[in-house]
Amino acid sequence: MANIAAQPQNFEGRRIDSISYSSKPPLHASELERAQILKVGQPLRAADVSETIERLYASGQFDDLRIEAENSPSGGVAVRIVTENRWFIGSVGVRGKMSNPPNRGQLVNATQLNLGTPVEESSLPAAESNIQRLFTANGLYEAVVTPQVVRDPAAQQLNFTFVVKTGKRAKYADPVIRGNAILSEKAISRATGWKYRFIGRAKRVTEGRTRGGLIGIQDKYAKEDRLMARVDMKSLDYDAKTRRLTPTIEVDAGPKVQVTTVEAKVSKGNLRKYVPVYEERRVDRDLLVEGARNLRDYFQRQGYFDVDVDFRQRQVGNDEIVVEYVISRGQRFKLVDVKLEGHKYFNNEVLRERMFLEPAGLLRFRQGRYSEALRKKDEENIANLYRSNGFRDVKVSSLVERDLKGKAGEMGASFRIDEGVQWIVDSLTINGTSQIGKDRFEAKLSSIAGQPFAEINVAADRAAILTTYYSGGFPDTTFLWESQPGAAPNHVQLVYNITEGRQQFVRDVLVGGVRVTKPSLIEKRLTLAAGDPLSLVNMSEGQKRLYDTGVLAKVTTAVQNSSGDTLHKLVLYDVEEAARYTFAVGFGAEFARLGGTATTLDSPAGGTGFSPRVSFDVTRTNMFGLGHSASIRGRFSTLQTRASFNYVAPRLQSVEGRNITLTALFDSSRDVRTFSSRRQEGSVQISQLFSRATTGLFRYTLRRVTTSDVVIPTLLVPQLLQPVRIGLLSANIVQDRRDDSTDATRGIFNTFDVGIASRYLGSSRSFVRGLARTATYHRITRNTVLARVTTFGVILPFSIPAGIERNESIPLPERFFGGGSVSHRGFPDNQAGPRDIGVPAAIGGVATQPTGFPLGGNALLFNIVELRFPLIGDNIRGVVFHDAGNVYRGIGDISFRASQRSDKDFNYMVHAVGFGLRYKTPIGPVRGDLSYSLNPPRFVGFQGTALQLLQCDPSRPTSELPSFCQGVPQRINRFQFFFSIGQTF
User: Fold this and answer.
1) Which of 231, 252, 273 is the last residue of a domain?
2) Is residue 829 part of a domain?
3) Which of 64, 243, 534, 823 measures 20 to 30 Å from 181, CA to CA?
4) Of 480, 479, 481, 477, the residue nearest 500 (C-alpha)
5) What pLDDT, in 10s, does the model give residues 516-555?
6) CA distance 555 to 174
7) Contact 920, 949 (CB under 8 A)
């Protein structure tokens, strides 16, 4: 057999009788047809051989190939193509017991084995070396790394698994200090933080801790004003016998740097914030100039708009540099007016939304918000807005006027806008679209006939067109545009020239790294299949859906052999499964007017108290490899003991957004002063996401409710105290169209919950329960929001047991209780609604003493209105609010009446007004509210112990009763204060 490339003259022009491969070529049939120029029955030519070799190499699927030929029995030539297939990187994982750091993700990243790229001879040794280096940096000098490589010939992949044994982690020894340290070695060693304070025990080595130690030394020198100190790690010497790591550190303390101000005071904290020599740890002119500019902006924001800042630097001896900022503040001004002139296309509100300058307010920006930098930024923002709407020649200038209207110290800023002429698109011509129709993207284009012409709109069109092509499997599409003068002045004719390139397709989709998860869970979330166009957009969507399963910690996606000249490519996903167990523990406390039963009845409206709180959560994810989760949760405080077990099966019947939840719950609550309750509950719930904004919840609950610790004689009736079984079938619809769930400024949030309890559902009490809540948010001005929420609830009992009144047939824990920080701030928590007023002659002929404790009700109506506005700076906002409503005995007792007829009348509407503060934080606003009730309820309460209460019999003459049996007129305090995290609604 001869190599054709070596001896072409022996076979040139002879007929090809057969063509064979040494192994099955890893190419799609159409790819092979395109690459293989040689055909059976045609003459063999050297040029065709060279072209075939070149095309097969260009596919990127081969490391080596050659074409051989020999005489065939029929007198022609038998051609054999000998190939050596190229291997690509597939799944990369790490196994073994290890302590963090480093974590598994860091180790995988350290290998630098990138999914879908060709395997090089040095790939595996380099990966091992990088992992070992990462272990060493984290003090794991005894770590052993064993690579395992599994070949997947069908996919031409090598799947790598690195089995690791970390061994014991080294500890720090005392560092060796060299150079011009000035500070003592003991002080430097303490600054590293490599030993526990007070006990002096060495910490274990981690890369972050080593790096933090060097930063700690630099911070130590910075506190000594040696901002130019240099700290370098020269070596890390490990002693295997003692497992100790000795760092050798080179230190150059450098001179002291004193940064001071002249003629104006600036705090040390602000100097560190605005003068960058502290952050950069060097002193040069550029940094000092930047510091002067920052200080100028700082003083201008304080109202010193004419401030002048200069600096001077001098050497004091050999060990000190003094930098003095000379600050001439000038007169202090107040920015009282910001004007916009010359604008016609946009109104003031649209322009002001993009501006930083703010006139002075009563509390917020007392001097106004102004600086030269902000003024220039506002000019730029306005100009960019106009340019994006076709005003190519717009000019924006600003002018500052001092002593405005003759008032000393007041200043105004005016912006003059010369809009120019708006450029308009006359026509849009799109060339080069032959494989994808224009209708796929035309609706997304901005620069169509009659619309403003702006380059930013053309850029948006480019993104829309290329995204459409990328989604259709055209990764090489290019976009160029040009414009020509239109028929009228300031009109243009746009031309988009598109070069589509070749369409690529999915050869197959491969997923690696799966160990526990069922393949079906992964496959159902992939958005690509064999034969589909190779859409990079769909690849990313598949990656997102895999993350949404909640069982994968990392999902990497890539195209195998992305640079190869093939049209059918493998799409790869490499996943890392998340930890299967998660643990969480929380601690908290509540200090307020608390509920809870007590031995004393002195405070029916609640008493100030302290309640510590502990919570824990244990979750097992990816149950049975199906993406299900099970969790045990507990919460313990002096007011509540709660334990629950939850099992969640997402995507019921493979429907996205449909989940089923099974719950078992035990709850013992003492947050209402009237009684304690105990609840054992089981429920099954199906949730369905109908749209992005709307979710439905459908639930069946069976629970056993027990009431205890009841000290109010009115409630000491056997029928009211015996355990009650509640079987409740309910549905809940949630609609959320808020722009921000933690601090909304526009949108709506509605919930509607309705349920029925009946003996046919296993319930010993029968009733219909409905609760609706609707909230709206309207932006009145740029920074002012009007928010409103209305809540209405009703419980309608039916099939009432004999011997029990209609309204009393609802067990105490099932009634509505309200009042507090989220429902009505005119009441302490759970203190709204009917109260115990006693009865002249109770069941059995025994009268009862009134206690004034809340009893809950079967109807509620609350309405809250808040005006939210900026108060101080950008982070502190103010709120004025009006809360109205109450909890009522029944639906027929709901009243809008604002006056209380007597101390036994609680079916009226209570009003409260107040003021609150909101401090913006990353987890939501921290809020404090102070309310004043305009018409708080009056009632007669009992002051004494529960034992004394039992000695009081109102049926006896008053002269025969002990003194403590006299009822005491009381009232809910007019003032209430609440502190929490998050908006009221």
Assistant:
1) 252
2) yes
3) 243
4) 477
5) 999 989 998 999 999 999 998 999 999 999 998 889 999 9
6) 42
7) no
**Matching residue, tokens 């070695």:** 185
**Average pLDDT of the residues in 219-230:** 91
pLDDT for the residue 948: 73
Residue 66 inside a domain? The answer is: yes
114 has pLDDT over 90: yes
**Residue 390 CB partners (closer than 8 Å, separation 6+):** 422, 423, 424, 451, 452, 453, 454
pLDDT at 605: 60
Band (pLDDT 50/70/90 cuts) for residue 334 is very high
pLDDT mean over 974-983: 86
Which tokens hold the place of 428?
Answer: 């849009």
Element of type H or E holding 288: helix 285-301
Q: Are 300 and 413 found together in one domain?
A: no
Strand order in the sheet with 424-431: 424-431, 491-499, 478-485
Considering only CA atoms, give the Rg of the chain: 39
Query: φ, ψ for residue 823 (rounded to 5)?
Result: -120, -45
Looking up tokens 């307020």, which residue turns up?
592
pLDDT in tens, 674-683: 677 788 999 9
Give the Cα separation of 713 and 641 in Å (integer). 26
DSSP letter for 708, please.
Answer: E
Neighbours of 950 (CB within 10 A): 12
User: Reduced to 3 states, what is the DSSP secondary structure of residue 186?
Assistant: helix
For residues 632-659, average pLDDT: 88
Sign of the alpha-carbon torsion through 878, 884, 889, 894: negative
**Pairing of β 747-757 and β 724-736:** antiparallel
- Tell me the CATH number at 397: 3.10.20.310
Question: Is 901 part of a structural domain of the chain?
Answer: no
Q: What is the per-residue pLDDT for 943?
A: 75
pLDDT band of 596, cuts 50, 70, 90:
very low
Question: Do 739 and 798 sit in the same domain of this protein?
Answer: yes
Strand pairing report for 176-180 and 157-165: unpaired
Which of 915, 922, 931 shows the shortest CA–CA distance to 743? 922
Instruction: Give kind and range of the element (H or E) at residue 52.
Output: helix 46-58
Per-residue pLDDT tens digits for 158-167: 999 999 999 9
Domain boundary at 499, 520, 541, which?
A: 499
Rounded to 5°, angle at Cα 855 from 850 and 859: 135
* Amino acid, single-letter form, for residue 769: R
How far is Cα 128 from Cα 922, in angstroms, rounded to an integer? Answer: 41
Per-residue pLDDT for 925 more than 70?
yes
The 3-class secondary structure across 485-503, one letter per residue, is ECCCCCEEEEEEEEECCCC
Helix (H, G, I), strand (E, B) or coil at 295: helix
Strand order in the sheet with 552-559: 505-512, 568-577, 552-559
Of 347, 404, 354, the C-alpha closest to 374 is 354
What is the number of structural domains in the chain?
8
Query: Per-residue pLDDT tens for 355-374?
Result: 999 998 877 788 889 999 99
- Residue 432: the pLDDT is 92
Separation of alpha carbons 771 and 765, rounded Å: 19
Residue 218, SS3? Answer: helix
- The answer to whether residues 7 and 153 belong to one domain is no
Total residues found in the chain within this entry: 985
CB 71 within 8 A of CB 60: no
| pLDDT value for 310 | 94
| CA neighbor of 970 nearest in space, from 802, 828, 803, 796 | 828
Distance CA 470, CA 460 (A): 15
> 846: which DSSP letter?
-
Residue 842, pLDDT score: 45
Rounded Cα–Cα distance for residues 869 and 480 (Å): 48
Tell me which residue range forms the domain holding 177: 171-252
Question: Given pLDDT bands bounded at 50, 70 and 90, which one contains residue 589?
Answer: low
| Single-letter amino acid code for the residue at 227 | L
What is the rounded distance in angstroms from the CA atom of residue 154 to the CA atom of residue 953? Answer: 91
